[in-house]
Amino acid sequence: MIITLTLNPAVDQTIFVRRLEPGEVNRFAEAQLDPAGKGINVARMAQRLGWPTIAFGFLAGEIGLLAERALDAEGVAYHFVRVPGQTRLNVTVVDQATGTATSFYGPGPAVEPEHVAGSTSCCASGCRPGGCWCSRVTYPPGSRRAPTPATSTRRAGRASRPSSMPTTPHSALDWKQNPPSSNRIGRRRSGC
């Protein structure tokens, strides 16, 4: 089982234009929306490769609902704590004439210590022996400056992961040589 924790998820919107003309109205014919955030990206890839996974984290508002629907469509299991506000929306404009991309990354919702406590109990319930814990953190707004939420989010990762479960940054996973267990779990819905 691959368990991921995404503290500041997003929906990425990628827009393709023939030629970007700053200061002008630019029309696009092609766009895509993808659920995103480091842990969610790992869970999506694991699902595509046929490995059992579950994504934990925080979602907010209508953008959070878009992320859930997209994960449902891909068959990715998840269990998010709902928080007030709006999940991040990131927009990337791809200029097809030059091959360049310009990105705009939005802020996410503030996550309070009580939300972190809810996430900790959710993650702990998802951990199984022989699993793999993946947590690559982009902290939600305010949590880096406010010591309590930042400390709590770090504790959430440590507290919810059993000591017998290996921890790895997602970029260091060697999927081909060390595939995760083939045990599957049922999809869980939001609202721990």
Question: Which labels suit this protein?
Answer:
disordered C terminus, four-stranded parallel β-sheet, 192 residues, UDP-N-acetylmuramoyl-L-alanine:D-glutamate ligase, four-stranded mixed β-sheet, alpha/beta, single chain
Total domain modules? 1
Report the radius of gyration as a whole number of Å.
17 Å
- Average residue-wise pLDDT: 75
What's the order of the H and E elements? EEEHEHEEEHEH
* Main CATH class: Alpha Beta
What global shape is seen?
globular
Low-confidence stretches: 144-157, 159-192
Strand order of the largest sheet: 5-4-1-8
- What is the end-to-end distance? 19 Å
Helix content: 25-40%
Based on the structure given, which CATH architecture is correct?
Answer: 3-Layer(aba) Sandwich
In the CATH hierarchy, what is the superfamily? Ribokinase
Counted beta strands? 8
Task: Please describe the biggest sheet, giving its number of strands, its sense, and whether it closes into a barrel.
Answer: 4 strands, parallel
How much of the sequence lies in strands comes to: 25-35%
The SS-based structural class is alpha/beta
CATH topology name, in short, is UDP-N-acetylmuramoyl-L-alanine:D-glutamate ligase
Specify the number of helices. 4
